[in-house]
Automatic annotation (TrEMBL):
SUPFAM superfamilies, sorted: Isochorismatase-like hydrolases
GO molecular function annotation: hydrolase activity
Disordered: region residues: 75-94
UniProt keyword Transferase present: no
Pfam families documented for this protein: Isochorismatase
Residue ranges occupied by any Isochorismatase-like domain in the UniProt entry: 19-213
Protein name per Swiss-Prot or TrEMBL: Cysteine hydrolase
Hydrolase found in the keyword field: yes
Coiled-coil intervals, chain numbering: none
Organism name: Fertoeibacter niger
Keywords on record: Hydrolase
Length: 227
């Protein structure tokens, strides 16, 4: 069965059983007041705007029995998987591995590394722990998608211009069709968010499509009805 999702630069048709919803780095340290992102002077309310649309997309994907995948950016406590070029960047004393308000910054197992409660993964939903910005870099995501016959990725998460963009670019080069859900993605910089989405769908969809959570929900409802 193929369903149609309203999107830009044009509608996309895909088989729900070959599609996955992937939510990128909806982690406490990026999103919550008192977290690492806010400590750096960012307005986390801008990122929290994506939580409701992500919840909508998550509920719709679960109802239609899509594969749902969550990612978290973070490193081993001993930092041996973190390249020096990544470790040396950022504000002094607020770098990866430094003590932060919710534990060590971007370290696996720390409270700030967790996904926000509103989007908590179900036990059967894979969580990809990624050391890079892109979800394919040094992870088993590609294997997992291929083993499950996935050819289309529906993407939400933060931040639009960094980890969401990098993941969509990586996926596009690996042959996956990618749809960013505009309102389910967010950035600390609204201009980067807007331009980031423009870049994905430019030139006839140079590396993907852009839709929104309500359109995705409607498409999933249609899939459930048709099943
Ligand atoms: C993400 C970042 N998730 N901006 N990380 O976008 O460092």
């Amino acid at each position: 069965m193929l369903i149609t999702l309203d999107a830009e630069p044009g509608p996309i048709r895909f088989a729900p059983n070959r599609a996955a919803l992937i939510l990128i780095d909806m982690q406490r340290d990026f999103l919550e007041p008192g977290g690492f992102g806010e400590t750096l002077g960012n307005d986390v309310a801008l990122l929290q705007m994506a939580v409701g649309p992500c919840q909508m997309a998550l509920a719709a994907a679960r109802a239609a029995e899509l594969l749902v995948i969550h990612t978290r950016e973070g490193h081993r406590p001993d930092l041996r998987d973190a390249p020096p070029a990544k470790l040396e960047r950022g504000a002094p004393s607020k770098r990866i591995g430094d003590p932060g308000p919710m534990g060590r910054i971007l370290i696996r197992g720390e409270a700030g590394h967790d996904i926000v409660a509103a989007l908590a993964p179900l036990p059967e939903e894979p969580v990809i722990d990624k050391p890079g910005k892109g979800a394919f870099h040094q992870t088993d995501l590609d294997q997992l998608l291929r083993n499950n016959g996935i050819d289309t990725l529906i993407v939400g998460g933060v931040t639009t211009e960094v980890c969401v963009h990098t993941t969509i670019r990586e996926a596009n080069d690996r042959g996956y069709r990618c749809v960013a859900l505009a309102d389910a993605c967010a950035s600390y910089f609204p201009e980067f968010h807007r331009i980031g989405l423009e870049m994905i769908k430019a030139q006839g969809g140079i590396f993907g499509w852009v839709s929104d959570a309500a359109s995705f929900r409607n498409a999933m409802n249609a899939a459930v009805r048709a099943a």
